[in-house]
Amino acid sequence: MLTSNQLEYLKNKETIKKRATIWNKLNKERRRSVIRKSRHGITELEYECQLAYQDNVCAGCLNPPKPGTRLHIDHNHNCCPGTEKACGKCFRGLLRGSCNRLLGLAKDSPQILENLRDYLIYGPFGKKL
Ligand SMILES: [Zn+2]
Ligand SMILES: [Zn+2]
Fold first, then answer.
1. How many whole angstroms from 64 Cα to the centroid of ligand 1?
2. Distance 44 CA to ligand 2 centre (A)
3. Comparison of pLDDT for 101 and 33, the residue scoring more
4. How many angstroms separate the first and last alpha carbons of the chain?
């Protein structure tokens, strides 16, 4: 048998939980923005402005983001090494996730990407396929 104090406590707990859920819902965008600012160095507004500037397409392949996804915030991978967070000064643009990963795999090297482009067009050592 629960005492009235315990009942009161349980009731409050539910209320607090409910309040927290509502608060979280209301602040989802805000929290997202705070996370974005601290992790990627740009605010939600800066993100929106950049997105509009890029005509809502990936700055790399010029394709729109896949349905239900957002473009990723790309930063110079040579800046702020060893951290999960970007400093904000090294922000470059918005990319599809796959393009962002591709740049990382190519070590952000224009030369590697150019060599690979030539390889795709001309085959190994410039020989036509
Ligand atoms: Zn892309
Ligand atoms: Zn940085």
1. 8
2. 18
3. 101
4. 82
**CATH architecture designation of domain 4-100:** 3-Layer(aba) Sandwich (3.40)
Residues linked to residue 41 through DSSP beta bridges, in sequence order: none
Which ligand lies nearest to the CA atom of residue 61 in the structure?
A: 1
Q: Exposed, middle or buried, 100 (CB in 10 Å: 0-12/13-18/19+)?
A: buried
The residue extents of the domains of the chain are: 4-100
pTM for this model (two decimals): 0.69
Using the mean position of ligand 1's atoms as its centre, give its distance from the Cα of residue 20 in Å.
38
pLDDT tens readout for residues 90-107: 899 999 999 999 999 999
pLDDT at 87: 83
pLDDT for residue 53 is more than 60? yes
- Measured CA to CA in angstroms, residue 112 lies from 76, 101, 115 at distances of 16, 14, 5
Secondary structure letter of residue 67 according to DSSP: T
Phi, psi of 52 (to 5 degrees): -65, -40
